[in-house]
Amino acid sequence: MAEQLYAGLIFGLIGMAAFGYGKKQGKPKPMIVGALLCGYPYVITHGPALWIVGMALTAALFLKND
Hints:
Shape: elongated
Distance between the termini: 37 Å
Structural class: mainly alpha
């Protein structure tokens, strides 16, 4: 239970920051990934899967294909 809370909090904050950055810079990739980071904890409820998906989406922010 606490594992889900921490994962949601951490990746939700990263998602909010990424979305705000994307909106300010006019870049769609950070906005989309940020929105996904904010919303995926509502869909995925299994603890380890939350961390794996969150880390994968966070890594996607840093991949260079703009």
